[in-house]
Write a structure and sequence with these properties.
With 386 residues, the protein is of the alpha+beta class. It is 43% helix and 13% strand. The protein contains eleven helices and eight strands. The strands form two sheets. The protein has a four-stranded mixed β-sheet. The chain is globular and about 70 Å long.
């Protein structure tokens, strides 16, 4: 038995012993997601036990170094971990912008003190993070941001506004792009971390068409941020931001795992779907979803050997979000009139319709599909700019 096969058996045995049956059920709604943080309320004892078991082994961030709360798995071992979790339908023990976005940026740009402090908190689910990138009037043109940090010696005083800050009203800390030099568009931005309870920080949820409010407006009024809480070099936050955006786009595309892009034709067909046109559309979706999965595997393999093209996350983001929108449109079509029910028990409070409406934002958040196509055209297809 090879080392990797032995490792798979070890993971399989551990999962059977530690993943509660309730955590092997599909995620039905937001309440089933464990976000962690200071004020998080576990839905049940099984959700808490599953998180604690994974934290103890470093399995919330399996490929991070052990010194920072991870399990120190190699890329091949981490892939085995994901495959074995998927095999039994295990829910992620912890969902976190800290894991998906900030953590990789800290591993590359953070000081040793920042890595030890913040990565450990992220791995244990102790702090919930939000992202302060977009601003009113800036859209996808992040470098035009106006939130300004005035140098006051050992700290900055930050004033400005962010928008579309996901779950800012529930977050403990924010990773935030702040202009610290007004004279230089690209090299006048710094990447700051600060506590959302700092005086001067306020949030206002934005109600969406789905009826939910995952996004917020966030306001900074004379917020004091110590200079020890900068990541990377002063005025070079754009370098950190671009690196983090690659991970954000992989997360939004679904490349990090999960089942939202998996085949749905067989599942829907089992419910007696007879419409031949819809059956054909489902089959086409399944083929495209499988192709997307193959593309993700190829890109991951190239990343392991250092041959990944820097614009590949843009390809994954564009293809993944367009697929997810198609998936929910097909599920709505297959569900018929029942899927349109908004508050009924048989749709668990309108989950199909609310989820379908939520996907409308997929091709906007984290960089629009138009921006992704522009990057793909210039950096992969080498087409000239306008």
């Amino acid at each position: 038995m090879s080392d990797l096969e032995s490792f798979r058996q070890e993971i399989r045995t551990w999962l059977e012993a530690n993943c509660p049956a309730e955590m092997r059920e599909p995620v039905r709604d937001e309440g089933d997601v464990c976000w962690g943080g200071r004020n998080f309320q576990f839905k049940n004892a099984a959700q808490k036990a599953w998180l604690e078991a994974c934290v103890a082994k470093g399995y919330t961030v399996p490929d991070w170094p052990r010194a920072y709360g991870g399990a120190g798995m190699s890329p091949a071992e981490a892939k085995v971990w994901r495959e074995e979790c998927a095999r039994i339908g295990a829910r992620p023990p912890l969902s976190s912008f800290g894991i998906w976005m900030l953590g990789p940026a800290l591993l590359k740009f953070g000081t040793e003190e920042q890595k030890v402090h913040y990565l450990g908190e992220i791995a244990r689910g102790e702090i919930r993070w939000c992202q302060g990138y977009s601003e009113p009037g800036s859209g996808s043109d992040l470098v035009s941001l106006q939130t300004f940090g005035e140098d006051q010696g050992d700290h900055w005083v930050v004033n400005g506004q962010k928008i579309w800050t996901s779950y800012a009203d529930k977050a403990d800390w924010i990773f935030c792009l702040v202009r610290t030099d007004k004279a230089n568009k690209y090299q006048g931005i710094s990447f700051l971390l600060f506590d959302m309870t700092t005086p001067g920080v306020t949030t206002k949820p934005i109600k969406l068409i789905s009826g939910n409010s995952p996004f917020c407006e966030t306001f900074f009024d004379n917020v004091v941020v110590p200079k020890t809480q900068i990541v990377g070099d002063l005025n070079r936050g754009w370098d950190v931001a671009k690196y983090l955006l690659g991970h954000e786009r992989e997360m939004i595309s679904g490349a990090g795992g999960g089942d939202r892009l998996n085949a749905i034709g067989a599942i829907v067909a089992r419910n007696g779907l007879e419409d031949p046109i819809l059956r054909a559309e489902l089959a086409m979706f399944d083929v495209d979803a499988l192709a997307y999965g193959c593309m993700g595997e190829k890109f991951l393999d190239e990343a392991k050997v250092g041959k990944a093209h820097p614009a590949q996350p843009n390809m994954m983001k564009y293809a993944g979000t367009e697929l997810n929108k198609r998936r929910h449109e097909l599920l709505m079509s297959a569900g018929g009139a029942t899927a349109l029910e908004w508050d009924s028990e048989r749709t668990s409070g309108g989950t199909p319709a609310r989820s379908w409406l939520r996907t409308k934002a997929n091709s906007i958040e984290g960089g629009t599909s138009e921006v992704m196509l522009n990057v793909i055209a210039k950096r992969i297809l080498d087409l000239p700019g306008a």
